[in-house]
Design a protein that fits this description.
Low-confidence stretches: 1-23, 35-46
Radius of gyration: 18 Å
Strand content: under 5%
Number of domains: 1
Helix content: over 70%
Number of helices: 6
Largest sheet: none
Mean pLDDT: 79
CATH architecture: Up-down Bundle
Shape: elongated
Distance between the termini: 39 Å
CATH topology: Four Helix Bundle (Hemerythrin (Met), subunit A)
């Protein structure tokens, strides 16, 4: 919360900062962390895992990617500084909370349904992608904050590439989870 307030202090007074302008908000983050923290999900030892919750988590990530793509498409002249600030305030918490949920709930369930003797390298790769995404989200937050502060975006091409590299990576990760992880869990926990 302190982080969000500090970020909001950067926004010029004349710019609107309505959280309703974007789909990804601190409320969506808290709902994701709620599922992981409250034990509403079940795992291999406790019964079925709700793939509906996993789908909601993945949908939040896709909405985030869509917004980042809108920002990239608006460069260099039409950048929405308020939107940059809003996304900067939720990017790292959203990425970390969704990864926490996946690693504490979904990955153990997926691991339990992998065929015996199957190589767990898929989970190793997914965890490595989480680490990379979190590091990159930190850097992207700094760039979004710089854009939100006003002034000219010094290198719009580099900023656009940075945005695109992040959201394309996240979209590939989500696609893999939707095509492989969710179906395996659904089949095992019916």
């Amino acid at each position: 919360m302190i982080y969000v307030k500090a970020v909001q202090a950067v926004l010029p007074q004349s710019a609107p900062a309505s959280q309703s302008e974007i789909a990804v908000t601190p409320n969506s983050i808290s709902s994701i962390t709620h599922f992981a923290a409250q034990g509403e999900e079940r795992g291999p030892e406790n019964g079925p895992v709700s793939t509906a919750t996993m789908e909601r988590v993945l949908q939040e990530k896709i909405r985030l990617c869509d917004i980042l793509e809108e920002i990239a498409d608006s460069l260099p002249e039409n950048i929405d500084r308020a939107r940059c600030l809003q996304i900067a305030s939720v990017l790292v918490p959203l990425v970390r909370s969704t990864h926490l949920y996946e690693e504490q709930v979904i990955f153990p369930a997926y691991e339990s349904v992998l065929a015996e003797g199957a190589e767990p390298s898929v989970l190793t790769r997914l965890r490595a992608e989480h680490f990379e995404d979190e590091c990159y989200a930190d850097e992207l937050t700094e760039a979004l904050l710089a854009a939100a502060r006003g002034g000219e975006v010094k290198n719009a091409e580099a900023f656009g590439y940075m945005l695109r590299a992040f959201f394309e990576s996240v979209r590939r990760h989500v696609a893999f989870e939707r095509e492989h992880v969710l179906p395996a869990i659904r089949a095992a926990y019916r």
